[in-house]
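Hello again, I could really use a second opinion on something today. I owe you a coffee for this, so here goes:
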Amino acid sequence: MNPQPNKSQNKTHKKKERLHPRNKNRVPYDLDALTLAKPELKHYIITNKLGGQSIAFSNPIAVRFLNEAILSHYYGIKSWDFPTENLCPPIPGRADYIHRIADLLGQSNFGKIPLGDKLTCLDIGVGASCIYPIIGVTEYGWQFIGSDIDQKSLNSAQQIVKSNPQLPGKIECRLQKNPTHIFQGIITKEDKVDVVLCNPPFHASLEEAQKGSRRKVKNLSGKRVEKAELNFSGISNELVYQGGEYIFIKNMVEESKLFAKNIYWFSTLVSQKSKLKSVYKLLDKIGIAQLKHIPLGTGNKASRIVAWSFLSREEQQQWRESRWQNNLTK
């Protein structure tokens, strides 16, 4: 009789099925390789409830080292330095957004994903970590415009670009001087952008953000705390927007109409499922030509991307012929 497999081993080696098939972190982390890439990480490896090795995810320092190791080992990014008070993004989830958007572009291009620097993406709220452009450049060779309302964050992003040889000339950072605007002041009437990415500020207040952090720490560590340090850090403008995520998306949707012919696909994450119907009503009201709902899931968290376009079929064809058909594709 064959011995029964160890349950903790099964779970340890099981693929993260909710992640995109091209996501480099769909398989469990190779902790040996990651600690080789970032030796400091070894001090934050713990034994989980199933007896396997894991990372102390409730510790912001551990999360930071893990993400530095992931970028170094899987993406070849050796310098990723930014202030500790800025948001430290979870790489697998950010990569999934990029891969889902690549699939969306492929669907718009007869099944072939447009590659190379003829394709331009706009990352709204690029942040100090510059994470979406980093993954988009290293995975698909795309060009990026990264916008942000914080000059210090842009300075940090620009330094990351300069410090990694595969990034210069691929990523342009632009300051949004008016925090009430999304596209105005960033995109000119001459610009052509193939796709917009956005991870909106989720919380309506710092108090709400702190409450969410306490809940996250309790879920990760089992400990109840009065004041929790955000395990992914983040300054206020990265986490908080007056009115919360829905109001940010509402402003984005309304302003997108001004750039209907400059941008092929607009997209944003929508974390709150309860707000989806309201977002769809907004999009219906402004008269879009096409709408896409793209499920997104990492770990136990489910989210979704909502994408829309104003271009007619004829305009889409003209766009493909002028911008994509001479690109390398896969």
